[in-house]
Design goal:
36% of the residues lie in helices and 23% in strands. With 493 residues, the protein is an alpha/beta fold. The protein folds into two domains: 162 residues, Rossmann fold (3-Layer(aba) Sandwich); 321 residues, Nucleoside Triphosphate Pyrophosphohydrolase, CATH 3.90.79. A five-stranded parallel beta sheet has the order 2-1-3-4-5, with helices on both faces. The protein has a five-stranded mixed beta sheet with strand order 6-14-15-10-13, with helices on both faces. Strands 7-9-8 form a three-stranded mixed beta sheet. The longest helix has 19 residues. It is globular and about 75 Å long.
Length: 493
């Protein structure tokens, strides 16, 4: 049997991928093999998963890209597509995007940029058209050997009309600015802000045991740090943190005005920084990456990981400047990267509520005080966005506050090392909080070789939407134009 078709799909869409495999192989009387990684036997037991997958990509002549409400957020699907696209540019292979229950306006920019002819398969008629196209492309096929309704049945099981996600808010589509690589997905966005009772945190103090592989890696990490400590080297503090085990976003909470607003519910257990190091952050570990690929982090955290929650705050001075930080080399998690004003990983000893639950507002106030030397009131902090950084499988709440100090006041405090943790930031930048100024700064720093941390970049871009309540189409257009102008200014010829 000749290797021919490779179906790139989210693990959540296994039923659809399996049905396509069965019907395509039947259509061609098994002359062509269809590879689906989630089907038992697709990857040989004991083989190197990544190497085997790359081999399949190299030997396949046709990529079927399954585009669904789940797969558009799958970093692995777009990796497979990008790998195949390099061969497609040489006209040696075929890419067939099949779109399932995703409207054109919600398709990811990468799919639009590739300029591939895509086909919807939302109905039985659509699926018949797809098989007619296969017949024309490959000079044959037996329609009588297929039961195409099985494909539609499996689509409807996963994406019936009642389960199709609500279209993303305008903020999600506006966040992905052309020319900026922002590996961060918005999961919830409040039109104005999340009130305190709209972020509900639960805490179970029973720690979830690490799987043996990660427990062994953690023991090795501890021994490594013990040896470094004996040599007098500076070590990261193994702080107590919260592990996100589950989250729900419920669009039925009614606020005081009688409006429907989103409510974020977070379920957490204890974890620590060393666990985070050997799970979330260990992106060169193939076992870790295999576990990450098998979970759709937009739906649930990876159960084997620490899956920590971060708090990122945009601080705007009283004279209208957004504070942007460049982290120092001493920062263990984001060294030498451009970041938001304040980036904090919550600590259980200092940021807990009365029942041990995570309190993001308390964490934000602590972070602003420790990193900038500024004191703000709890009611002055507003959170507007909850999302996930897919590369690290970590979650974050993004918010903002306007402080009473001017830019010059804060820079003087930071220069005098008044903040508790001034060493975390190598430099502070004060950017006039205007779309054109912010966009120009982002592209200028990027063109000068400064690396943006994805969550920090997402936070800075979102700051333009956070503080302007109820943006009009004209205002959104002004923001878009600002980024377009900045891109054209700094774009390499």
């Amino acid at each position: 049997m000749t290797e021919m078709f490779f179906i790139s799909h989210s693990a959540e869409d296994k039923l659809i991928a399996e049905a396509l495999k069965e019907q395509i192989e039947g259509f061609f009387a098994k002359v062509y093999q269809v590879f689906v990684s989630s089907v038992p036997g697709g990857i040989k037991t004991g083989s190197d998963f990544v190497e085997e997958l790359n081999n399949k990509l190299e030997t396949s002549g046709t990529l079927i890209l399954l585009v669904t409400p789940k797969s558009i957020h799958s970093a692995w699907v777009w990796f497979e597509t990008g790998t195949f696209w390099l061969r497609w540019r040489k006209k040696k292979v075929i890419i067939l995007p099949l779109v399932v229950r995703v409207a054109d306006e919600h398709l990811p920019n990468i799919l639009k940029d590739l300029r591939l002819q895509r086909k919807n398969i939302d109905t039985l008629s659509d699926i018949e058209d797809f098989f007619n196209e296969l017949e024309q492309r490959f000079n044959g096929g037996d329609h009588n050997a297929t039961n195409k309704s099985i494909i539609l049945e499996n689509i409807n099981k996963l994406y019936s009309v009642s389960t199709i996600p609500t279209p993303p808010s305008p903020f999600k589509t506006k966040m992905f600015i052309d020319g900026l690589d922002i590996d961060w997905i918005i999961l919830a966005h409040a039109r104005y802000r999340f009130a305190r009772n709209q972020i509900v945190c639960h805490y179970d103090d029973r720690e979830v045991p690490l799987e043996p592989y990660y427990a062994q890696r953690k023991d090795m990490k501890i021994r490594e740090y013990e040896e470094k400590a004996q040599r007098g080297e500076l070590l990261p503090f193994n702080g107590d943190k919260w592990s996100l085990r589950k989250f729900t976003i419920e669009d039925h909470y009614i606020n005081n005005n009688g409006d429907m607003v989103p409510q974020i519910v977070l379920y957490t257990t204890p974890t620590d920084y060393y666990t985070e190091e050997v799970t979330d952050q260990a992106t060169i570990d193939e076992v870790r990456n295999y576990d990450a690929r098998n979970v759709d982090v937009t739906e649930r955290p990876v159960p084997q990981f620490a899956s920590i929650i971060a708090v990122n705050i945009n601080v705007i001075t009283s004279d209208g400047y957004l504070i942007v930080a460049k982290r120092s080399g001493s920062s263990h998690t984001t060294p030498n990267t451009m970041h938001t004003s304040v980036a904090k990983n919550p600590a259980r000893p200092t940021d807990a509520g009365p029942d041990g639950e995570f309190d993001p507002f308390r964490c934000a106030i602590r972070g602003i005080r420790e990193e900038l030397g500024v004191v703000v009131k709890l009611e002055d902090v507003e959170f507007t966005t909850f999302g996930v950084y897919t590369a690290l499988c970590q979650y974050s709440l993004i918010g903002w506050t306007r402080c009473q100090e001017k830019a010059s006041d804060i820079y003087r405090l930071w220069s005098l090392r008044v903040p508790n943790e001034p060493w975390k930031n190598r430099e502070l930048y004060f950017v006039r909080h205007d779309p054109h100024e912010v966009a120009d700064f982002i592209y200028k720093m990027q063109s000068n070789g400064n690396q943006w941390f994805s969550i920090g970049l997402a936070s800075v871009v979102l700051s333009l939407f956070q503080v302007s309540v109820g943006l009009s189409d004209k205002e959104i257009g002004r923001i878009e134009k600002a980024f377009f102008d900045a891109k054209m200014k700094y774009q390499q010829p």
